[in-house]
Design a protein that fits this description.
Helix 6 packs antiparallel against helix 7 and helix 7 packs antiparallel against helix 9. The chain is globular. The protein has 9 helices and 5 strands.
Length: 245
């Protein structure tokens, strides 16, 4: 395989960039054609064939497009405000969940109150993972085992859309609390759903050791947060994030 070591090597070179990575990958493949339905027969015949999987590369340049065309000057809020003591809560009903996403508004509230923009991406990952678990498993009762195969992802999200469209009962409550610390601040995000709860097995599988298609959510949360706590029956999940980390 091309492998992560080669990717890191290319990106550390003076000509690093998307085009350089694509060129090196093409060189590695040696002009081999894309895989097709006769793959197994050609392999049995000893023919030199291409990779059996798709290859996808994405380049994202957030700084180049940040606020482009919006007329919004973000410079005054690029530095974190002095850490202060504050909290806010939000409760979302089933009817609202069917057609709205409250997460961008919650994240913007944190930015407006504390201005920790350099932590924005991490905080969004934490909020979205907590909220998705509450919605998918707490209210929609979806089984993550569906995602045990690559094809299972499409099945899972199709089932999610159907269940969300039929959702008539339930609620999700977010409680966000921030307190100053000696070095910065401590942000607590508590997400509660009205579902039956979730039992944490306590078995911590690292991101590096997980070779399955799914099952990385809790490991990712624990890698980003100071602490992740399951309260009661598991339908109260609290994540503690400290800055600077």
């Amino acid at each position: 395989m091309f492998g992560q070591d080669r990717i890191e090597k290319v990106l550390s070179e003076p000509t690093a960039g998307f085009a350089a990575l694509c060129a090196r990958l093409a060189e590695h493949r040696g002009g081999a054609a894309a895989a097709d339905s006769s793959l197994s027969g050609r392999a049995a015949a000893g023919e030199n064939i291409a990779q059996p999987d798709d290859i996808t590369l994405i380049e994202i340049s957030p700084l180049a497009t940040y606020g482009a065309g919006t007329g919004f000057d973000d410079a005054p809020r690029r530095t974190a405000c002095v850490a202060s003591d504050w909290r806010f809560s939000l409760e979302v009903s089933a009817a609202t969940l069917r057609g709205a996403d409250p997460l961008p508004g919650c994240l913007q509230m944190v930015m407006d109150l504390q201005g920790i923009h350099e932590h924005r991406e991490r905080l969004y990952l934490i909020l979205s993972e907590l909220f998705s678990n509450a919605l998918d498993h707490g209210l929609l009762r979806l089984d993550s085992a569906i995602k045990s195969t690559p094809g299972g992802f499409a099945e899972y999200y199709a089932a999610r859309e159907r269940a969300l469209g039929e959702l008539t009962e339930g609620r999700i409550r977010l409680n966000v609390r921030h307190v100053p610390t000696a070095k910065g601040g401590r942000l607590s995000v508590l997400v509660e759903d009205s579902g039956p709860g979730f039992r944490d097995t306590g078995v911590a599988v690292s991101l590096a050791d997980n070779t399955q298609p799914g099952g990385r959510g809790l490991a990712m949360l624990r890698s980003l947060c100071k602490e992740v706590i399951f309260h009661g029956g598991g339908n109260h999940v609290e994540a503690i994030y400290e800055w600077p980390d």
